[in-house]
Amino acid sequence: MEIGRLYRSVRNRFREAGLETPDLDARLLVSAALDLPVSALLLQEHERSDEASVELANSHAEKRLAGMPVGRILGEREFYGRRFLLNAATLEPRPDTETLIDAVLARCDPKSAPVLCDIGTGTGAIAVTLLAELPLSRMVAVDLAPDALRCALLNAEQHHVTNRLLPVCADYTSALRPAAGNAEWAGFDWVVSNPPYIRTAVLQDLSREVVQHDPELALDGGEDGLEAYRIIVADAAHLLRKEGRIALEIGFDQAADLKNQLRHHGFGAIEIIRDLSGNDRVVLAQKL
Question: pTM of the prediction?
Answer without folding.
Answer: 0.90
